[in-house]
Amino acid sequence: MKIKKGILLSALLSMKMFSLPLFSQCTPDNTINIEGISPKVSTPGCVNSRYERTLFFTYRKDTVIFGMTLVIDSIFITRIDNLRPGLSYAVNMPKQIYSPSSNYYQNCINVFGTPTNALKAYDTVAVNITAYVSVFGTVNQFQDVMYAVLPVNPAPNVAVLKTGNILNAVMGATSYNWLLCDFGYATIPNENGSVYTPTVSGNFAVEVNLNGCIDTSTCYNVNVTNIADEKDQMGVNVYPSLVVNDVQIQLAENIDRIEVYDQLGREVGRLNIENKLGIITMPFNEKSRGTYTLKFYSGNRVIVRRIMKE
Question: For residue 142, how far is the Cα from the chain centroid?
Fold first, then answer.
């Protein structure tokens, strides 16, 4: 059976395309007129996270051999040594491109993948090249090496120490964000320290940022009892503890008024009750997200409850 050349070529090209790694093709930068790899030190990446960096290659057009200045006929990048596990590379073109405006050979290299460790031993990579020079009609080759630094930072330790109702992120980091696991890992406003004491019951996690590398802990369950453990004795019950629209307040004793304070201690609401018993609805839909303190005044006593607005 005969196979048309065009069909065979298309099939081969398709197979080749599917075998290629997925990355964006780079473009050499002919404005660089300093020999070497640029940048010398790339922006750090993060272990176990997607990594993509472009290295720009610049090499002189001529060289000196045995005291003679000779023009390099062609130059190739042959391999990169000491590349971190999990990373691969692709050269824009195997043969370097000559740029008449700068009198240098130019090319670029894409480094991509997911690094699996952050060992410093892999920070510096060696770009090996082979150059060809004609001397009196004979083609000679010589080897050279250029170096670049591709640092990768470790992932942060997201371990949390739970002591009673207190959650403590054990590792020092650049920043923290405490999250509500029960509400799609929503960020808890203004809770960005290493220690968090929930004011309502629920499941909580911490997002840890260490030098730009971010990871999230598992969720920790905390069961909070209201501050005034005299809840049953004083006859005040507030629900839900995590508010979306309204707060329901069940009163079993006489209360004069209710005051509402935000996380900064500012009074943001007040309700005069005039000794009303039963269930009272307090609108909360217009208040912003965060933790609020409700103070119930009964004669010379103050009952405190805390809620969180989603």
Answer: 43
For residue 29, count other CB atoms closer than 10 A to its CB: 16
- For residue 27, the one-letter residue type is T
Find the length of the chain. 310
Return the SS3 of 100: coil
Give the span between the Cα atoms of 126 and 145, in whole angstroms. Answer: 6
The Cα–Cα gap between 37 and 46 comes to 22
Going by DSSP bridges, is the β-strand pair 36-38/104-113 parallel, antiparallel, or unpaired? unpaired
Distance CA 1, CA 140 (A): 47
Question: Mind listing the pLDDT tens digit for each residue in 143-179?
Answer: 999 999 999 999 898 999 988 888 998 877 888 999 9
Q: Which domains does the chain have, with CATH numbers?
A: 22-153 (2.60.40), 160-222 (no CATH), 231-309 (2.60.40.3080)
Residue environment code for 199-237, b if the CB has 16+ CB neighbours within 10 A, otherwise e: bbbbbbbbbbebeebbbebebbebeeebeeeeeeebbbe
Please, which pLDDT band fits residue 103 given cuts at 50, 70 and 90? confident
Instruction: Collapse the DSSP code of 27 into the 3-class scheme (helix H, G, I; strand E, B; otherwise coil) and give the result.
Output: coil
Q: For the segment 219-261, what is each residue's pLDDT rounded down to a tens digit?
A: 999 886 544 444 444 578 888 878 888 888 888 777 888 899 8
Portion of the chain with pLDDT greater than 90, in percent: 30
| Dihedral sign for Cα atoms in the order 159, 163, 167, 170 | negative
Residue 171 neighbours by CB distance under 10 Å: 13
SS3 155: coil
Per-residue pLDDT, 30: 79
What is the Cα–Cα distance from 237 to 280, expressed in whole angstroms?
Answer: 10
- How does DSSP assign 209-263, residue by residue? EETTEEEEPPPEEE-PPPSSTTHHHHTEEEE-SEESSEEEEEESS---EEEEE-T
Amino acid identity of residue 217, one-letter, is S
Let me know: does 76 contact 185? Beta carbons within 8 Å.
Answer: no
Which pTM does this prediction carry?
A: 0.61
